[in-house]
Amino acid sequence: MARSRNGTRNRLGVLCDQLTRHESMAAEIDTAGAGPQLRELLELVRSGTATAAGARETELLDTIEDACVRHGLPALDVREYGNAQLPLGFGLPPEGGTASAWVCPWGNCGRVVLPDEAGASAPRCAAGDEPLRAFPAA
User: Fold this and answer.
1) Phi/psi at 2 (5° precision)
2) Which terminus of the chain has a smaller tally of CB atoms within 10 A, N or C?
3) Is the dihedral of CA 49, 59, 22, 91 positive or negative?
4) What burial class does residue 119 get, using C-beta atoms within 10 Å of its C-beta: 0-12 exposed, 13-18 middle, 19+ buried?
5) Cβ pair 16, 111 in contact under 8 A
6) pLDDT tens digit string along 58-111?
7) Rounded to whole angstroms, what are the CA distances from 57 to 114, 137, 138?
8) How far apart are CA 96 and CA 90, in angstroms?
């Protein structure tokens, strides 16, 4: 079954979240046999060079996900906890001019980090180690 572009963005967001939460995740993916695909995917995100309709990103995610599942890791459409139902482009009301959430700095994935998940510092993107963008913008 082909996944939609939104599906690709959401899966990329889950992968980014897993890579930033679990220091060993990239090594696990490499051990599972999809290290080259992960590096290519992260470079595509970092460079902002999206392919037509996300076809290459989807192909890379499928390969990474298949390797992860074979290696006993969760699929990329499973979030560890809550907020999995938030649609892309959701809106949170601003609270005193501070960020209500953080999102992908390039807008390439569907990752959303809420304040209670963020910890003491702004969350970072796994693709380029850039800080996530505050949403709504201050």
Assistant:
1) -75, 140
2) N
3) positive
4) exposed
5) yes
6) 899 999 988 888 877 767 665 444 333 333 444 444 445 555 788 888 777 878
7) 25, 27, 31
8) 19
